[in-house]
UniProtKB/TrEMBL annotation:
Record-given protein name: ABC transporter ATP-binding protein
Region (Disordered): 228-272
Gene3D superfamilies noted in UniProt: P-loop containing nucleotide triphosphate hydrolases
Biased composition (Low complexity): 232-246
SUPFAM superfamilies recorded: P-loop containing nucleoside triphosphate hydrolases (SSF52540)
Keyword Transport: yes
Boundaries of every ABC transporter domain copy: 6-245
Xref: PANTHER family: ABC TRANSPORTER ABCH.1 (PTHR24220:SF86), IMPORT ATP-BINDING PROTEIN (PTHR24220)
GO CC terms, sorted: membrane protein complex; plasma membrane
PROSITE patterns: ABC_TRANSPORTER_1 (PS00211), ABC_TRANSPORTER_2 (PS50893)
Keywords: ATP-binding, Nucleotide-binding, Transport
SMART domains: AAA
Length: 272
């Protein structure tokens, strides 16, 4: 049995306080083995992104433990956490979070800039990642000039450029048509197969979830059995309505909320 790359124990996350208190995660214990692909599935608001942010060390839990390679992260200083996150993890978000004023290559090499590599080495590795994604010819284009699928491939190149052990993908195909989604999914699972990269994929999409080695179903901040999770498909099936899409955008803090602000925090690190 492969060792756990990530473990959580009794993970609790509370947002706000007093009358505004919201218990987003209510005690989650799980582990993710090296090299496996895990889908975190559940309807909008169930706590998927919150769990991902805690496991990816983008946020700290209110209670409980996150351990990376057997070591509890709470023992580490902020600076060490930033370094570890930058070295060990790659991120792919639904909203892409590419800097529109920069070229594709500049966007892709951002994690290497944070890590302090020389420009020459950054560009060499950035181009290598873009080649792998069949995007080398777009290296000098502005990020805004890309199609949705190309943007997501640029994001995957950025996620790969540090040679991470884990890629976290939050609704990676949420903004893509079904054909482009399939291309992006194949790339992600190819990285798992060929490079042994662990995949943690947050999704509404039952089909994408089914392609992962294992599924973790969330409901109201707790891990539940699949039939209790009320995912998009089971709701749609019971109500006879089509599965909802783009639900995240209707959440009150969408755009300025946790994912967006965390990603802009990542961007800020690059400007130091
Ligand atoms: N920064 C925040 N402040 C207050 N509430 C939040 C914040 N982030 C998430 N929430 C709330 O926590 C719950 C879980 O959110 P999230 O983890 O984003 O769910 P999911 O990704 O499954 O849609 C939601 O009800 C959401 O409104
Ligand atoms: Mg989410």
């Amino acid at each position: 049995m492969e060792p756990a790359v990530l473990e959580t124990e009794n993970l609790v996350k509370v947002y706000g306080r007093g009358a505004n208190r919201f218990d987003a995660l209510k005690g989650l214990t799980l582990d993710i083995k090296r090299g496996e692909s895990v889908a975190v599935i559940g309807k909008s608001g169930s706590g998927k992104s919150t769990l991902m942010h805690l496991m990816a060390l983008l946020d700290r839990p209110s209670q409980g433990v996150v351990a990376l390679n057997g070591r509890p992260v709470s023992e580490l200083k902020n600076k060490e956490i930033h370094k570890l996150r930058n070295e060990s993890f790659g991120f792919v978000f639904q909203q892409f979070f590419l800097n529109p004023n920069q070229t594709v290559l500049e966007n892709v090499v951002l994690p290497l800039k944070i890590a302090g590599l020389s420009k020459r080495e950054r560009n060499r590795r950035g181009l290598e990642a873009l080649e792998l994604l069949e995007m080398a010819d777009k290296a000098k284009n502005k990020a805004t000039d890309l199609s949705g699928g190309q943007k997501q491939r640029a994001c995957i190149a950025r996620a790969l450029v540090t040679n991470p052990s884990v890629i976290f993908a939050d609704e990676p195909t949420g903004n893509l048509d079904s054909k482009t989604s399939e291309v992006v999914e194949n790339i992600l699972f190819g990285l798992q197969r060929d490079r042994g990269i662990t995949l943690v994929i947050v999704t509404h999409d039952d089909d994408l979830a089914a392609k992962c080695d294992r599924q973790i179903y969330l409901k109201d901040g707790l891990i539940v059995a699949p039939e209790q999770s009320n995912t998009a498909r089971s709701e749609a099936a019971s109500s006879g309505e089509p599965a909802p899409s783009g639900q995240e955008a209707t959440e009150p803090w969408a755009g300025g909320g946790s994912t967006a602000s965390r990603a802009s925090e990542l961007g800020k690190e690059g400007n130091r």
